[in-house]
Design brief:
Blueprint: E1 2-5, H1 8-20, E2 27-32, H2 40-53, E3 58-62, H3 70-73, H4 81-86, H5 91-103, E4 107-108, E5 113-114, E6 119-120, E7 126-127, E8 133-138, E9 150-155, H6 158-164, H7 171-180, H8 183-186, E10 189-192, E11 200-203
Parallel strand pairs: 2-8, 2-9, 3-8, 9-10
Antiparallel strand pairs: 1-11, 4-7, 5-6, 10-11
Helix pairs in contact: 1-2
Length: 204
């Protein structure tokens, strides 16, 4: 595979250009990568102000605020990689509360579940005008039927994945994701982030 080295600032700028060039009344953009090992939230955050300067209303949403309750996530233990892969994220809630309303009424729920307190956030819906962008960061987002207008995948080499994932027990979940889903083939943009200070864009 060939990659083009790029600075984080230039990466944010190029992604902003690409998002702003997309058609459609409202857009859903995903930034996908292994939690704790890739800086998905930081990259999504870096796109907010540049998009707003382009006149795009922008809402940040994190998949970690759409996890299932602890009783469901930890039914098979707190360190089960298969559960991490299939049972942690509430895909139905993301569709129902974020992605479908984004394309319909425009009233999006920014968060649903506080995983630390294990209770509903009781957040209010946010009305988004035409031209708005929802920036969603999280892990294991691709290949699950979620409809994104642009998907960015932050890719780690196998060695970097094992080295940088903070919870070693979760590594098999990401390896399974790579093998079964091949997120790099589904994403619109793939960024190698073995060293987050020196990302590199995949050149197809």
């Amino acid at each position: 595979m060939r990659y083009r080295p790029i600075s984080p600032a230039v990466l944010a700028g190029e992604l902003t250009d690409r998002i702003d060039a997309l058609g459609g009344p409202r857009l859903a953009v995903a930034v996908d990568g292994a939690a704790g090992a890739t800086e998905t939230a930081q990259l999504a955050d870096a796109l907010v102000d540049p998009l707003r300067l382009r006149g795009r209303a922008t809402l940040r949403v994190s998949a970690r605020d759409f996890l299932r309750p602890a009783s469901l996530r930890f039914e098979h233990g707190r360190t089960n990689p298969d559960a991490r892969y299939t049972d942690w994220l509430d895909l139905g809630a993301l569709r129902r509360e974020v992605l479908e309303p984004l394309k319909g009424s425009g009233e999006v729920l920014p968060s649903l579940w506080d995983a630390e307190r294990d209770r509903a956030t009781r957040a209010e819906r946010v009305p988004l005008p035409e031209g708005a962008v929802v920036l969603l960061d999280g892990e294991l987002l691709l290949g699950a039927g979620l409809a994104f207008d642009l998907a960015v995948h932050l890719w780690l080499s196998p060695a970097a994945l094992r080295r940088r994932v903070p919870d070693a027990w979760a590594v098999p979940a990401y390896e399974r994701y790579e093998e079964e889903v091949d997120p790099g083939s589904l994403a619109d943009v793939v960024v190698r982030v073995d060293d987050p200070r020196h990302p590199a864009l995949y050149l197809p």
